[in-house]
Write a structure and sequence with these properties.
Elements (H helix, E strand, L loop, with lengths): L4 H5 L12 H12 L1 H15 L5 H25 L6 H9 L1 H38 L5 H17 L2 H28 L22 H10 L6 H4 L7 H31 L3 H8 L3 H9 L2 H35 L18 H20 L4 H5 L2 H28 L4 H27 L1 H5 L4 H4 L1 H22 L1 H4 L8 H14 L6
Helix pairs in contact: 2-8, 2-11, 2-14, 3-9, 3-11, 3-12, 3-14, 4-9, 4-11, 4-17, 4-18, 5-6, 5-17, 6-7, 6-14, 6-15, 6-17, 6-21, 7-14, 7-15, 8-11, 8-13, 8-14, 9-18, 13-14, 14-15, 17-18, 17-21
């Protein structure tokens, strides 16, 4: 197969159009969120050292914030269909330099999320093999093997990967829902606790900023809906609908899971979360269901980490592909397979980046959860939230240029994006205030995380300015749309916005 790949893959830059259904998008977005990973790791941490007893309220509030952000995001998705998503949206809203700054930033973030989650996969897989099969395998070999498998799957049609993610997701959501339903249905340890949704709970939380960081991290990747726009049937309708459904269903699910987890242990929830940590919901499964459910969860947490890492592998691949197709990165990255229409070269590069990152942490003797699985997510989450802040401004800029009609349009394309930008800015501030505590380290590498994000964004912005003065043709390719009818219109708009003659 390897020898045949180059010959079969040359000569195409098109993705497989209309290959993904509305339900495929919803499943892939939700798989990227990895519900079992969130429930088994992030909610207990938030209970212990973050939002405390206000964890369910924090997830509910985050749902509202992201729904407001989605209002403007959806309006852009109705008009712009591109694998570049945030990168393309920002280009058409705030200009090419800012668009490329966002493109570099989001590409770097997603490129690092895949190995970060793969570290968790390696940890839990090694633990599973030892516990249930008596096999001792180093975590990093498990992680590297998983990343190699991800490339193999992504080499073929995206629908193959979507089918795998859909199945794994359905099983893990079902098992979590069963555990939570039994915990709440039985009355828990101290009865129902409606006071958990009282905003006063935030005032006594250990660290609200950490709680919001963990909540936002639980949704990272929901823009997957727009990333797959070019491959989706009826993207102008499917992408906005899928985004709303993904954000809302995940929000309701996380809020219910957090509430159930607290009710399950009652007033001792925060103390239990501090001692049990990653075993918190597994203990709930033992208490409120049968032991077989816990055994199934041992296996599902592994598949959940795989599905999550794989989803971000695909996300990063499409950003590499989009920037390659636009001629900003090497054009070979913009090639797709002749038969499968997959961005296989970009997928290979992403797999190599992820494997190299895992190997680097392994050689340094880093812990797969505390270092690889914590430091990188802090960088990624900060980068993504900053990008979402900029995209909110891009929505405003775009509709300021093309105009608005009616009161409802002003709400969707001005007021909602303004509120979304303010909320994202507050979360960025909270994250910066708690960054060393989140990392569990005062290491200079951790303290410089905000600088890394700034440098990457600045390099994209600076590169665009350099192209504008040295290679206008390549500069004009930044954030272009690969739809002939729309591209002509948007090129004219961008020229006018830059004070240039489109002719």
């Amino acid at each position: 197969m390897t020898s045949a790949m180059p010959d079969r893959g040359q000569g195409s830059t098109d993705l497989l159009r209309s290959s993904i259904t509305f339900f495929h998008i919803v499943f892939m977005v939700t798989a990227a969120a990895a519900p079992l990973v969130v429930v088994s790791a992030y909610i207990p941490i938030s209970l212990s050292v973050g939002a405390g007893m206000s964890t369910a309220l924090t997830y509910a509030a985050t749902t509202l914030i992201l729904l407001i952000f989605t209002v403007g995001f959806a309006q852009m998705a109705k008009r712009i269909t591109s694998a570049g998503a945030f990168y393309t949206f920002t280009t058409h809203g705030l200009g090419r330099p800012m668009g490329l700054a966002v493109g570099f930033t989001i590409m770097a973030a997603y490129s690092m999320i895949s190995p970060a989650i793969a570290g968790g996969f390696g940890f839990y897989t090694a633990k599973l093999l030892d516990t249930h099969f008596g096999l001792q395998v180093a975590w990093y070999w498990c992680s590297i093997a998983a990343l190699a498998v991800m490339f193999v799957i992504s080499f073929y049609r995206i629908t193959y990967g979507a089918s795998i993610l859909s199945f794994l997701l359905a099983v893990e959501v079902l098992i979590i829902f069963v555990v939570c339903l039994f915990a709440v249905g039985s009355g828990g340890a101290s009865g129902q606790m409606p006071s958990l949704f009282d905003p006063a709970q935030w005032s006594v939380a250990p660290a609200v900023g950490i709680g919001f960081f963990l909540a936002f991290w639980s949704w990272i990747g929901f823009e997957t809906t727009a990333i797959y726009g070019e491959e989706t049937m009826d993207p102008k309708r499917s992408v906005p609908r899928a985004t709303y459904i993904a954000v809302l269903t995940l929000g309701l699910f996380y809020t219910f899971a957090a509430y159930s987890g607290i009710v399950g242990f009652g007033n001792d929830a925060t103390e239990k979360a501090g001692t049990l940590i990653d075993q918190y919901y597994f203990e709930l499964a033992d208490i409120y269901t049968i032991h077989a459910v816990r055994v199934v969860m041992d296996f599902l947490v592994v598949t959940s980490f795989f599905a999550c890492s794989f989803a971000f592998h695909n996300n990063a691949t499409r950003y590499l592909y989009s920037l390659g197709r636009d001629g900003i990165l090497p054009k070979s990255l913009g090639q797709t397979h002749k038969a499968h229409k997959s961005p296989y070269l970009a997928a290979a590069v992403q797999a190599c980046i992820a494997i190299f990152t895992v190997a680097l942490f392994a050689i340094a003797g880093a812990d797969p959860l505390l270092h690889l699985g914590t430091w990188l997510p802090i960088f990624c989450t900060l980068a993504v939230i900053v990008v979402q802040f900029i995209v909110s401004l891009a929505v405003i800029g775009y509709f300021n240029r093309i105009g608005r009609q009616g009161t409802f349009d002003w709400w969707k394309t001005l007021l909602a994006p303004v509120l979304g930008a303010i909320a994202q800015a507050i979360v960025v501030w909270l994250l910066l205030q708690n960054i060393t505590f989140l990392a569990g380290s005062e290491n200079l590498v951790v303290k410089l995380i905000p600088l890394y994000v700034a440098v990457i964004a600045a390099s994209g912005f600076g590169y665009a300015l350099w192209l504008r003065s040295s290679n206008r043709k390549r500069y004009d390719m930044i954030g272009q749309l690969h739809d002939e009818e729309l591209e002509e219109l948007f090129v004219d708009e961008m020229y006018v916005a830059e004070g240039r003659n489109p002719n």
